[in-house]
């Protein structure tokens, strides 16, 4: 996203947070705004003329806002229309950034709704677990990534996998992501997990361990990583018996390989 678009998104995110904080129904309002913004993005994706009109800098901000209000007034909640009107009044580098900005706002609204229910940690963990499930099922990921299949069909497939197993916020975020893929489904879900952690002021540590880690072990690991990186760390673990012992930890682009398999591999290389 270009600089002007990033600034626009930052202003809109601040305004969204302020509005939700002042609302007496943060949970419900956040959920409605999030889902309706996703619906509006779907409409924009299907209509190039409309996308261009929404960011047409030859029109004044007031004219663009009036267009949004005329199009979506009565079809979405007043708070959603207000957020879209504010968005089109901003300066965006291009229509792609504008649509991406609406997606980010939709995600933020849903996550604020989850936060209001005390479910942020759960949503973060569900997204991590879902990414790992799909990662272990290559055929499922291929089906979810198939651009020859409609977005609705991909969402229907994932909805069947998710039905009754995750929170409504996790489901909404995951379905939106696979319907509008920018990268592999697993990467989209991992990016969503990162967004949840960032909202909490943390960074994700993805840990593959040879054996399950208990709550105390995870807490101790988080403390150690926070001292190393100087920031809050959200630890997510999975079991990988092929490591033989120890663990592999990934924080951002940095990997710490303390596994037995990794040590053996390094030993073999040193003997060559």
UniProtKB/TrEMBL annotation:
The keyword Transport applies. F(1)F(0) ATP synthase produces ATP from ADP in the presence of a proton or sodium gradient. F-type ATPases consist of two structural domains, F(1) containing the extramembraneous catalytic core and F(0) containing the membrane proton channel, linked together by a central stalk and a peripheral stalk. During catalysis, ATP synthesis in the catalytic domain of F(1) is coupled via a rotary mechanism of the central stalk subunits to proton translocation. This protein is part of the stalk that links CF(0) to CF(1). It either transmits conformational changes from CF(0) to CF(1) or is implicated in proton conduction. InterPro entries: ATP_synth_OSCP/delta_N_sf (IPR026015), ATPase_OSCP/d_CS (IPR020781), ATPase_OSCP/dsu (IPR000711). It is a peripheral membrane protein. The gene is atpH. The keyword Protein biosynthesis does not apply. This is ATP synthase subunit delta. Keywords: ATP synthesis, Cell membrane, CF(1), Hydrogen ion transport, Ion transport, Membrane, Transport. Its main location: membrane.
């Amino acid at each position: 996203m270009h600089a002007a678009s990033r600034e626009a998104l930052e202003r809109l995110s601040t305004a969204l947070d302020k509005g939700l904080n002042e609302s007496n129904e943060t949970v419900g309002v956040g959920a409605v705004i999030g889902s309706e913004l996703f619906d509006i993005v779907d409409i924009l994706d299907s209509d190039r003329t409309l996308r261009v009109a929404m960011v047409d800098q030859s029109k004044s901000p007031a004219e663009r806002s009036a267009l949004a209000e005329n199009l979506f007034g009565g079809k979405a909640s007043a708070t959603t229309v207000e957020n879209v009107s504010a968005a089109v009044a901003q300066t965006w580098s291009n229509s792609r950034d504008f649509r991406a900005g609406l997606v980010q706002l939709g995600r933020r609204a849903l996550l604020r709704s989850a936060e209001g229910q005390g479910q942020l940690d759960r949503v973060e963990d569900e997204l991590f677990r879902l990414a790992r499930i799909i990662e272990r099922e290559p055929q499922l990921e291929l089906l979810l990534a198939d651009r020859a299949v409609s977005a609705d069909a991909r969402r229907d497939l994932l909805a069947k996998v998710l039905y009754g197993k995750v929170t409504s916020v996790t489901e909404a975020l995951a379905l939106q992501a696979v319907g509008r893929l920018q990268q592999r489904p697993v990467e989209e879900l991992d990016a969503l997990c990162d967004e949840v952690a960032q909202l909490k002021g943390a960074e994700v540590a993805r840990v593959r361990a040879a054996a399950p880690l208990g709550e105390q072990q995870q807490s101790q690991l988080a403390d150690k990583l926070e001292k190393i990186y100087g920031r809050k760390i959200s630890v997510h673990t999975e079991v990988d018996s092929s490591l033989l012992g120890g663990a592999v930890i990934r924080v951002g682009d940095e990997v710490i390989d303390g596994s037995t398999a990794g040590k053996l591999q390094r030993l073999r290389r040193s003997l060559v």
